[in-house]
Automatic annotation (TrEMBL):
Family note: Belongs to the DHHC palmitoyltransferase family.
Ranges for domain Palmitoyltransferase DHHC: 147-292
Organism annotation: Mustela putorius furo (European domestic ferret)
Superkingdom of the organism of origin: Eukaryota
UniProt protein name: Palmitoyltransferase
Name of the gene encoding the protein in the UniProt record: ZDHHC4
TM spans (from-to): 6-25, 59-80, 100-120, 194-222, 258-282
Top-level taxonomy: Eukaryota, Metazoa, Chordata, Craniata, Vertebrata
Main localization, broad class: membrane
GO biological process entries: cytoplasmic pattern recognition receptor signaling pathway; negative regulation of cell migration; positive regulation of cell migration; protein localization to plasma membrane; protein targeting to membrane
């Protein structure tokens, strides 16, 4: 039971940490904490080890590599192997509907298709050949995106909503972010694939969590375990409660309970990120624009130039044109419309 408590405590810490990072990512608090932690660690860890860690982090997060793709496939393979070997077999013995048990596999196939498309598709790389057409797609707001700005690396004029990716070393139209899990930038041309990949991945994790939970509940109900009593450490008879049931299931089916804990945590994390991605899609924002939005007006309008009584201005998104138009732009990128008109 001690291990189970520690495991649940660990899950809670991970979730709280992720939420705190999401909240603090747009403020200077997180950077200050990271800087302070780095200074403390620099006094403890030897310099050679620090250099090795920095090189490893640079390779993992600042260069294009297939490490996270392989890790993604290995984790997915392990979870589905566990589901197939343990949950699927027991559920068949309990005569669960077959289509109900096969749903995670169907979602896996669809997910792998969109995962592959997210990995290999062109996100909207800006080149000399398409530079002029991209410049005419979005309006410049003169706050976050200004006219006649040039990329110092690519030596190309920067269309509105574009950004140079330092990892891929290219400018990307309607740049959202660089995703290490697909080893590719997410931009105008592959945002739809990434959104569907994220949706099916969340759905597959959630479906496995539901099937595993239903199996364990069914097992408890069929065995009438919740009606039993047990002797506690003081020698008193106690009615079986939820804590005892979890302990019993963890001892009896440790692999299934551990897998259930993992997919539940994964479902919550992916579900939270999916909601954020859907919010950005519905409001026609990118992750890059959302992150920079609160500071865009501050940089454009200094505090000294603003009257003390005036309310601070916030960035206004000029590209949002209603829910359906915003979603249509994700699945039918604006460049496609322009090229069609041109032809």
């Amino acid at each position: 039971m001690d291990f189970l408590v520690l495991f649940l405590f660990y899950l809670a810490l991970v979730l709280i940490g992720v939420v705190m990072i999401c909240i603090c990512s747009k403020t200077h608090y997180l950077k200050g904490l990271v800087r302070g932690a780095a200074q403390i660690i620099s006094y403890i860890i030897p310099e050679c080890l620090q250099r090795a860690v920095l090189k490893l982090l640079h390779y993992l997060f600042h260069t294009r590599n297939h490490t996270f793709i392989l890790l993604h496939l290995v984790l997915q393979g392990m979870v589905y192997s566990e589901y197939t070997c343990e949950v699927f077999g027991y559920c068949r013995e309990l005569e669960f509907p077959l289509h109900y048990l096969l749903l995670p596999y169907l979602l896996l196939i669809v997910n792998l298709v969109f995962f592959t498309l997210s990995c290999v598709s062109n996100p909207g790389t800006i080149t000399k050949a398409n530079e002029l057409s991209f410049l005419q797609v979005y309006e410049f707001d003169e706050v976050m995106f200004s006219k006649n700005m040039k990329c110092s690396t690519c030596n190309l004029r920067k269309p509105a909503r574009s950004k140079h990716c330092s990892v891929c070393n290219r400018c990307v139209h309607r740049f959202d972010h660089h995703c290490v899990w697909v080893n590719n930038c997410i931009g105008a041309w592959n945002a739809r694939y990434f959104l569907l990949y994220l949706l099916t991945l969340t759905a597959s994790a959630g479906t496995m969590a539901v099937v595993s939970t239903v199996f364990l509940v069914q097992l408890v109900v069929l065995s009438d375990l919740y009606l039993e009593t047990y002797v506690d450490d003081l020698g008193h008879f106690q009615v079986v409660d939820i804590v005892f049931l979890i302990q019993y299931l963890f001892v009896t089916f440790p692999r299934i309970v551990f897998m259930l804990g993992f997919v539940v945590m994964l479902s919550l994390l992916l579900g939270g990120y999916l909601c954020f991605a859907l919010y950005l899609a519905a409001t026609n924002q990118t992750t890059n624009e959302w992150y920079r939005g609160d500071r865009a007006w501050c940089q454009h309008c200094p505090h000294a130039a603003r009257p003390p009584s005036a309310e601070p201005q916030v960035y206004r998104n000029i590209h949002s044109h209603g829910l359906w138009s915003n979603l249509r732009e994700i699945f039918l990128p604006a460049t496609a419309h322009y090229e069609r008109k041109k032809n």
